[in-house]
Structures are given as structure tokens and as C-alpha cells.
Amino acid sequence: MPTGVSANAMLNLQPWTRPVETVTTNIGLRFQYAFNDDWNATLSANQHAFKRDDYTAFPYGCSGQDLYPGFCGNGDYDVYDYRSLGETKKPLSAQAMIEGKFATGSLRHAFTAGVSTFRRKDRAGLYVYDWVGVSNIYQPQIVGTSPGVTGPVRLVRKDTENSVFVQDIISLTPNWKLHGGLRHVDVDGYQYVLKADTEIRAKHDFLLPNVSLVYTPLDNVSVYAAYSQGMEHGGTADRKAMNANEELTPSRSKQIELGVKMDVTPDFMLAASLFQIRKGLEFQNAARYFVREGQAQHRGLELSAQGKAGRDLNLGVSLTALNSQQSGTGNADLDGKRVPNVPALKAAVHADYAVQQVAGLSVNGSWEYAGKKAFEYNNTTFVPSYHVFNLGAAYATRIAGTRAVLRAAVNNVADKFYWRDVTPESDGYLYPGASRTFKVSAQFDF
Predict the structure, then answer these.
(1) d(CA 446, CA 404)
(2) Number of Cβ within a 10 Å radius of residue 213
(3) Domain spanning 39-50+89-124+152-445 has what CATH number?
(4) Predicted confidence band of residue 1 (pLDDT cuts 50, 70, 90)
(5) Phi, psi for residue 162 in degrees, rounded to 5
(6) Spatial distance between the Cα atoms of 255 and 210, rounded to a whole number of angstroms
(7) CB 115, CB 164: distance < 8 Å
(8) Tell me: the pLDDT tens digits for 344-403?
(9) Domain limits, the chain
(10) Mind listing the pLDDT tens digit for each residue in 217-238?
(11) Distance of CA 188 to the CA centre of its chain
(12) Could you tell me if 290 and 282 are in contact, meaning their C-beta atoms sit under 8 angstroms apart?
């Protein structure tokens, strides 16, 4: 493996590549109506649209030494012409909900009921992914493009999810509250797998309960225990899997949590919780099929503090310790190992200070930490931990009689290089965090 090469080196820099061209739009509407002091209704909807054209010189492998992934001993690597054009996604969500308060005998209720729908349409065409030559990490080479052409864009995915839900918070006594809810989800899915030229249709339904019990021994202290189930959308097999581009069916996740919250002052809160989340483990097995087998379990402790820590200081602190584990796959190389891309420790601190000497001025800073993470399901490789520091300021004023907030920020002040996220899919990807970034913005309230 070649050494001494900066992680900032652009291995896909070819004259025929272009930046990924992305266009997005988002429109949201919300209407709320109060029938009286105790009952109200809410209608909301959101339409998102996304379009992307991708032209990339994709560096991958060393055919001369049959290394996939990898580099040749002299720094050579294969270059592929990757083009995916006209990909679009259009998710639409809408919800109608009614909320109210009433009593049945000595029990007081805070009741919520509603219906929601989510509709998604994805379009795409056959992409080009062709070998076009060899470059070198020490002496980059210009290579040509593929004569291949992308296929016509067509509907490749259509999902419809309809839900009905109810939730009730029952005040049993002045110190005890019971939260209970139920959601029924109907999922109607359609896939067209481009490479296989096959259609997949599937319908599923889920009944998802949630329940929690809250005890308030003091006015400013609450202790709770909670159990809930959720629906997890299935992942999509990558292009190298035998079932490439197929999406797995939805599945069920289960979570339990024990916690305590304390209002130290009316404006400052401390919280601690123990939790466990279990869901299906998705990975590419030895037969090169993308499957859901066994489970991924996350057990953790979360500590947090948030609120006004002084007259001019707002503070947010969080610390999460996680034990993640794979089990039930029947593969000794996977069972008992850590789940990829999950750090054992995460921490963050955010502070915002109002400068009294200058009316409307505040300064802020934050620190983020993530521990090392497993790169593959068998935990052969780990990516290192990282720290990131950010600084910023905001100034609230009036411009031409209009309220305005001017903001400036420097993210990743130390310009530290780090791997923000990783995935073992398609032989593995590393996603670098953003380098030092300067941001300015203005907000006007009319």
C-alpha cells in the first residue's frame, strides 16, 4: 500500500469530471384551528423535490495486481467513468391531527389522534460505470471517457405509507402519569430494479405501540420508564451485490429507556438516561447478497445539561457512551463485533454568551468529539477519533425599521482533517468532515 500521500489528494480529478449538479426545492404549509381552550386541530403538508446529475471519475482498485479495493505497489489505480443523469426524488408528506384535554372521573387526559400519509416517487436511468484507464497517486494521469450512454429515466420506486395514530397522557395522580399510544402503518411499495429489469411489489403493515410511566417525586424532578416500537425502512443493496439496487422490506425496531430529568432552575435542566435499541442487522453476506440477518443492538448512557447557566450564558452539554453489538448472524466473524460507524463515546459542548457591553451582540462556540469507529462488520479496521471546534457571533439589530439578525461563523476552526462517517458498503467508503468553513447570513423578520 503506498504511503506518504495526503488524504486531501484528489484522486478523481479529470478534465471531463464536473461537480455534482443538485437542485432541491421544499414547500411546507401548516394550518391550526382552536375550537376552544381545550381542543385544536392541525393540518400540515410538505413537498420536497430533488434532482441530481453526477459525472465522476471514480478511483477504484488495482487491476494489475488484482486488488479490490486497493492500490498497486507503485501507486497506480484504476479509473472508472461514472455517470448518473436525471435522478429525481419527490417525497410528499401530509398530516391531520386533533388534540384535546378532558376528564373521565378523577383521571385527566391529554389526547391526540390523527392520520398521516407519506408518498415517494423516485426516477432514475441506467448509469454508466466503465473502466477507462489507470492513474497514479504520485503522478496523476489524464484518461479518456467511456463511449457508454446512460439509459432513459423512468420510475424506479414508489412508496405509499398511510398511518392512523392515537396518543393519550393520563394523569393518574398528582405524581404519576401514564403515556400510551398506538400507530398503525400500511406500506405499499413498488421497485423497478434497473440492472435486473424486474419489478418488485410488496405490502406490509405494522402495529406500533408505545408506553411510558412518569413519576414526579418533586416538582422539579421526573423519573420515567418507556418502551416503544418503530418502523425501519430497509436499506438498498449496493451495485456489487448479487441483488444490486434492491431495497429490503421494512422492519421493526424496539427501544426501552429509563431516565431522570431535573430542573435545577426554571431555565436549566439536567437529564440522564439508560437505553437499549434493537433492530435488524443489514449487510452483504458471504454469498454477496445484501440481507437482513441477526440484529444490531445499541446500549447506552446519555447525560445532558441544557439551559441558562448564568445571566448572559446559555449552555448545552451532552455525553453519550454506547455499546453496540452484532448478534444472531451465525457468522463468528461478525457476531459479538461492534456495529460499523458507531463510536463508543460521543460528546458535545455548545455555549452562547450575550455581550452586555454591546446591545444585541452574542458570541458562541462549540466542541464536538466522536470516538473511533469500526469500518467493517468484522471490525478489522477502525477509523480514529476526532475533535472539532467551531466559533461564531450573532448581532440582532434593526435595518430600515426591520428586525434583523446578522450571523458569522467559522466551523472547524483548526482546519482539522477527520473522517466524519464511514460505511462498509461497496468495499467501503470514508466521508471526510468539512475543512475550515466561513459562513455569513442575514435574517429579516417582516
Answers:
(1) 9
(2) 15
(3) 2.40.170.20
(4) very low
(5) -115, 130
(6) 9
(7) yes
(8) 999 999 999 999 999 999 999 999 999 999 999 999 999 999 999 999 999 999 988 899
(9) 39-50+89-124+152-445
(10) 999 999 999 999 999 999 988 8
(11) 23
(12) yes
